[in-house]
From TrEMBL:
It comes from Roseovarius albus. The chain crosses the membrane at residues 6-26, 38-61, 67-91, 112-135, 155-175. One of its GO terms (molecular function) is amino acid transmembrane transporter activity. This is Leucine efflux protein. It is a multi-pass membrane protein. GO terms for cellular component: plasma membrane. Keywords: Cell membrane, Membrane, Transmembrane, Transmembrane helix.
Length: 200
């Protein structure tokens, strides 16, 4: 493994983080509605689970899913149901009055872990990227280093986003357009959940 491999991986990771998906949408929603600390906490939860998926991909977990398709189906179905549940809750409360009030960060951290834990496509995506970028003869130490690098990049990304989006101007703009933003986000999350549910 060389520094070029690591740079290529980090570029691919940043592109994946910035693309619209459940993790990004929920982290933005959490930051805007419950404050900077909760936004950073959910980012840490998302990052920790994503990094662990990367480590399991490096250690060959995707082979387990290939050998036991039912395990993949169970995790995928649970993840889809969880996303649909979040979407329904977001839609239901879209018209509720909201204020930017701090909430216990531990709840957001657990939610971040659950979102990426129940998304088995994370490990398949990680495996695909890792196979293309990294050599096949990596040691266990190098695999752990890649996992820690992944965790660092995710935490920097989500914490930076939480800091930027928790400003008064951004929060005020969200509160003014809350019903529309929540309904669009709920629709996207619901569609992602349905796609995950029916996809093979």
């Amino acid at each position: 493994m060389t520094i070029e491999h690591l740079i290529a991986f980090n570029l691919a990771l940043f592109a994946a983080l910035a693309s619209p998906g459940p993790a990004l949408l929920v982290s933005i929603k959490t930051t805007l509605t419950t404050g900077r600390n909760a936004g950073m906490a959910i980012g840490c939860g998302l990052g920790l689970m994503a990094a662990l998926w990367t480590l399991t991909a490096l250690l060959g977990l995707e082979v387990v899913f290939e050998l036991f398709p039912w395990a993949y189906v169970i995790v995928k179905t649970a993840g889809a149901i969880y996303l649909i549940y979040i979407a329904c809750s977001m839609w239901k409360h879209a018209r509720d009055q909201a204020e930017s009030i701090e909430q216990p960060a531990r709840h957001a951290f657990r939610q971040g872990i659950m979102i990426n834990l129940l998304n088995p496509k994370s490990v398949l995506f990680a495996a695909a990227v890792l196979v293309v970028i990294f050599p096949s003869d990596m040691t266990t130490g190098q695999s752990v280093f890649v996992m820690l690098n992944h965790l660092f990049v995710e935490i920097v990304f989500y914490c930076g986003m939480a800091l930027g989006m928790s400003t008064k101007a951004v929060s005020a703009a969200y509160l003014r357009a809350k019903v529309y933003i929540d309904r669009v986000s709920a629709g996207v999350l619901g569609l992602l959940g349905m796609k995950l549910l029916i996809s093979r």
